Q: What sequence folds into this?
């Protein structure tokens, strides 16, 4: 309801120094440093509003857990493809200096091209760094995808098998470190 009405609720506590790398609950630092700057982008704000409205419908259809995965893999832990490499935009990454480096430079997580239905089927965990990140082409494209009717997607997802975090499907677009583009960009990811 808050997002659907363009309201963003912030946590009311701040993490302790030993929680700087990872915290399971959103605190003021995460919300103000991670979320608020993105909310100043008109396309991202429209995406959040559409997500909030979609959440109301998803809840009524019993599909809220699938929609929650979209939030997790975009708003919290999203990566964006730019001409000179991948960039972080998810607040869960931005508010962790260590995961900021991990998400872009560590060889262990999968970085997959964004596919809405794929995202909605993929499980996630909240107790550690992510082992899969989804890469969007732009905030504008993310907004466009979110403004569609999710009804047909929800129908296909009913009874569909959930995908484990580590799954890489033959249809996935994979972004890897082992490309010449990575080396040519001085250690930054390039698509």
A:
């Amino acid at each position: 309801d808050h997002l659907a009405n363009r309201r963003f609720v912030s946590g009311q506590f701040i993490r302790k120094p030993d929680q700087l790398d990872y915290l399971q609950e959103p605190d003021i630092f995460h919300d103000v440093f991670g979320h608020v700057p993105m909310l100043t982008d008109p396309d991202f704000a429209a995406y959040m509003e559409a997500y909030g409205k979609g959440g109301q419908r998803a809840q009524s259809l019993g599909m809220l857990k699938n929609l929650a995965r979209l939030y997790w893999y975009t708003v919290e832990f999203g990566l964006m493809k730019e001409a000179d490499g991948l960039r972080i935009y998810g607040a869960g990454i931005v508010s962790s200096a260590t995961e900021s480096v991990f998400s872009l430079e560590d060889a262990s997580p999968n970085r997959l091209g964004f596919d809405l239905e794929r995202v909605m089927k993929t499980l996630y965990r909240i107790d550690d760094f992510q082992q899969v990140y989804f890469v969007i082409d732009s905030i504008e494209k993310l907004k466009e995808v979110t403004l569609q009717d999710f009804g047909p997607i929800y129908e296909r997802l009913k009874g569909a098998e959930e995908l484990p975090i580590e799954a890489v499907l033959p249809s996935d677009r994979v972004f890897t470190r082992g490309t010449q583009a990575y080396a040519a960009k001085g250690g930054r990811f390039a698509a």
Summary: The first helix runs from residue 28 to 39. DSSP finds nine helices and five strands in the chain.
